[in-house]
Specification:
The chain is an alpha/beta fold. Among the domains are: 2-71, no CATH class; 82-312, Alpha-Beta Barrel (TIM Barrel), CATH 3.20.20. It is 37% helix and 17% strand. The chain has 17 helices and 15 strands. The strands form three sheets. A ten-stranded mixed sheet has the order 11-10-9-8-7-6-12-13-14-15. It has a three-stranded antiparallel sheet with strand order 2-3-4. Strands 1-5 form a two-stranded antiparallel ribbon. Strand 14 (356-357) and strand 15 form a beta hairpin. The protein starts with a strand and ends with a helix.
Length: 432
């Protein structure tokens, strides 16, 4: 047996004399005494431990076989994936005017009509095969709660369809939170509502600058007031988008939420992330802040600071796990309000990256057009220990930098500087 080529190790600061081991392919983490780890490196391991270390991905039969397993990871996901997941844009109307919105000039009074909604239901029913166990919709806008009637109509047809096949049906919302009332949650929960992602860009003065109502009025208090009333009724996934100038102010929002009764047990996860700089013509966005790469040096300190402060306050963060791009997952699709199909919601409106329609099906060049498996051909990826964590990175971010998805969005520099410290945080706060 050999140590995995996707093994990351670092000396534990929380437990002197011990080493943290993290298996990037499986997301497993253990802490071992240094002498035990030394034995492991020499191939000496107790038989009762060997099975567990193999199961968790720390020990492998052969490094090259393990590399091939990572290369085949996407194919395996597509083979066994029990879910059909569709991101659905119900319309482009929004009651906010966010400074960095990637939808930009596409916003307006465009929405899904009855004919498109009917065809969408037919398309989903045809796509949902007998081996599928769950049908899940991610509902976007604009602001999706401006289209509640349309959402209810879709759910009322698709929920009994899935359940009659012995499968589960659910949907979540990506909402600005301003219309997320108790009545809305009470009406949507029986239809399959499984949570809402809501964005707060830090404390009120920063949030209201970046995410005001279209009228210019502040939105912070409206959102927080709604969250306080519904956080016990449905899962709330809190997001937020920070920049170099404001990231240190973000943890304060959690103190404010806690005082208002939105305590750690009332939020499923907190995921503060960078503002992505979008410069393509569709966005027509004049905002020039944010990032076009995760390798910007300031982000190393910022991301670790944010994670530490969220952990310290007892709120949950997402785990460090393999993250394939939706471009390569067959049963992850985006449907725009007009019935056009894309691989990711960030591409809506980009005709060059449309992969088909719900009427005609998929275009033949979709895989080539999105440079599927480009990370398998990139020399920098082939021996990279972080490959399972990024699989070539974010195609949209690479597109913003170079105007093409042809090159990988390499994140090695970022992981080199942050992952050891992230593992220390995982041991300290999550693993005890």
């Amino acid at each position: 047996m050999e140590l995995s080529p996707y093994l990351i190790t670092t000396t534990s600061l929380e437990h002197p004399g011990q080493t943290i081991l993290f298996a990037a392919r499986t997301g497993a983490l253990v802490v071992l005494p240094n002498d035990v780890f030394a034995d492991l490196r020499q191939g000496r391991v107790a038989e009762d431990h060997r099975v567990h270390l193999i199961e968790m991905g720390f020990l492998v039969e052969d490094k090259e076989v393990e590399r091939q397993a990572v290369y085949d990871y996407i194919d395996e996901i597509n083979r066994i994936n029990p879910n059909l997941t569709l991101a659905i844009v119900l319309g482009m109307e929004c009651n906010f005017t966010c400074r960095y919105c990637f939808e930009g000039q596409q916003k307006g009074k465009h929405s899904m009509d009855d004919q498109t909604a009917d065809q969408l239901v037919r398309f989903i029913k045809q796509r949902f095969g007998p081996k599928k166990e769950r049908l899940h919709l991610q509902i976007y806008g604009g602001e999706p709660l401006l289209y509640t009637r349309r959402l209810i109509g879709l759910a009322e047809q698709l929920k009994p369809f899935a359940e009659n096949l012995g499968a589960a049906f659910s949907f979540d919302l990506i909402s600005n939170g301003s219309l997320l009332t108790e009545k809305v949650v009470d009406n949507l929960t029986p239809l399959g509502l499984d949570g809402v992602k809501v964005t707060l860009d830090g404390p009120p003065e920063n949030h209201n600058l970046f995410r005001p109502f279209k009228s210019g009025q502040p939105s912070f208090e409206t959102i927080v007031g709604n969250l306080a009333k519904v956080c016990s009724k449905t899962k709330i996934r809190l997001g937020g988008n920070y920049t170099l100038e404001n990231y240190k102010t973000f943890p304060a929002i959690l103190d404010d939420l806690c005082q208002k009764g939105i305590t750690p047990d009332r939020l499923e996860v907190v995921n503060f992330n960078i503002v992505m700089q979008v410069g393509d013509k569709l966005a027509a966005n004049e905002y020039l802040g944010g990032c076009r790469t995760v390798n910007e040096p300031w982000l190393r300190e910022a991301s670790l600071f944010i994670r530490e402060e969220v952990f310290k306050r007892g709120y949950a963060l997402g785990e460090i796990t393999p993250s394939p791009c939706a471009v390569e997952v067959d049963d992850a699709l985006t449907v725009n309000y007009d019935g056009s199909l894309y691989k990711c919601v960030t591409w809506i409106g980009h005709d060059d990256f449309k992969i088909g329609t719900i009427w005609q099906g998929f275009q033949k060049n979709a895989q080539a057009n999105h440079y599927a498996r480009h990370w398998q051909r990139a020399a920098k990826c082939q021996q990279c220990v972080y490959l399972p964590l990024c699989f070539g990175g974010c195609r949209f971010m690479e597109f913003q930098r170079s105007g093409s998805m042809a090159q990988v969005d390499c994140q090695k520099e970022y992981f080199d500087h942050t992952l050891p410290a992230m593992l220390q945080q995982e041991v300290k706060y999550r693993s005890g």
